[in-house]
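Quick illustration, no need to memorize.
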Amino acid sequence: MTIKKHGAAAWQGGIKDGKGSISTESGALSEYPYGFAARFEGKKGSNPEELIGAAHASCFTMALSLMLTEAKLTATQLDTTAEVSLDQVEGGYAITAVHLTLKAQIPGADKETFEDIAAKAKAGCPVSKLLNAEITLDATLLE
C-alpha cells in the first residue's frame, strides 16, 4: 500500500526580493507566504524548517501513540516540539539536526517503559527515517 500526499510551493522574483507561497493538499495552508526574510532574518512568514519541524513533531507523536497503544497504555496528553537546525556548511546550508522535546502524561507508565517506547518512536517514525540529520529527544513523563 502506498499513500501519497501533496504539498506545493510557488515563487516569484530573486532570492532576497522574491516571495513565495506554500499550500497543502488538505488546505491547512493555502498560498501561505514564505521567503528569504522569514527563513534567515526572523521576519513574518513561514519557512521550510518550521514545516519540517511540524511534520516531524506530528509524525513522532503519532508513532508514539501507536506504540503506547500496542503496550496497552493510553496517553492523556502528548506535547512535542521539534527544533530544526539549519547550519551554514561548506557548499551552502544543511539541516544538521532535529531536537524533539516531549512532555507526556501517561497513566500507568513507568519511566523505563516510557523512555524505551519514546526512543523506538523517535527511530521508527517515517519522518525520522527521511531526515539525514542527528535527531535527539528529551522525553519527560509528567506525574
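The chain has a mean pLDDT of 94.
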